Amino acid sequence: MSSRRSDVLVVIPAYNEERNIGAVLRSVQSLESPPDVVVVNDGSVDRTEEVARQHGARVLSLPLNLGIGGAVQTGFRYAVAHGYRYAVQLDGDGQHDPRAIEDLLRPVRQGQADIVIGSRYVTRTGYRAPLSRRIGMVILARVISALVGRPICDSTSGFRAYNREAFTFLASHYPTDYPEPEAIVLLARNGFRILEVPVQMHPRLNGESSINSARSIYYMVKVLLAVIVEAVRDRLRSKEATSP
To answer: To 5 degrees, how large is the angle CA 162–CA 167–CA 168?
Structure first.
């Protein structure tokens, strides 16, 4: 990695991604203006940490597996502590194309949004999830759109860019169970501006997703309950703003 300090930190949560993390890091490093990167090794039992360090990444290794929510929140806390202006969340499995990072950051840099989601469904991109997952995504997107009062096409995408105010807020309040869908409701309820931009996503380079077809319905029901609970919670941002 370059020793030049960027104002952008890419946060890569990684659990047992030894076969994917090297390619992901090489893709980020090949960008014209490479951002800083931190890999949050989420209690992996394989060589994820070793491979990430071999590719020059800074690595935060959690002592046990906290799940995606805990890993991403750790990265946001690192970004806050080190004064970054922007943070980008990028999966460690190779599904996200780092060449789209600037597309996500542009509306944030221009002050048009606090959070930008890389979406598979704003325009037709050719991405095809299994049928059971597509049905769940459609239902979830419609419920979340109703809860936040604006269309959200891809509520489960983990490819996102944030300004400092947004990732500082999430460093304290990032959801743990179903973070991507819940975070949309949480952020919208607390007055953050959310935008989606189209991106291409790819199948995992290696390995399988933890959410297979058999678990999709179970996952969808639990996420729906979680986002509805999130929608009726008190707003946290106004409370903090008025706290002494």
So the answer is: 145
Task: Give the model confidence (pLDDT) of 78-91 as tens digits.
Answer: 999 999 999 999 99
Average pLDDT over residues 30-34: 94
Classify residue 187 as exposed, middle or buried by CB count within 10 Å of its CB (0-12, 13-18, 19+).
buried
CA distances, 239 to each of 32, 44, 77, 193, 242 (Å): 41, 37, 21, 18, 5
- Pick the closest to residue 5 from 84, 76, 80 (CA basis): 84
Instruction: Report yes or no on whether pTM surpasses 0.85.
Output: yes
157 SS3 class: coil
Angle between helices 179-189 and 131-148 (to 10 degrees): 10
How many helices (H) and strands (E) the chain has is answered by 9, 7
CB atoms closer than 10 angstroms to residue 79: 26
> Both tokens of residue 164?
């400092």
Strands 115-119 and 160-163 turn out to be: antiparallel
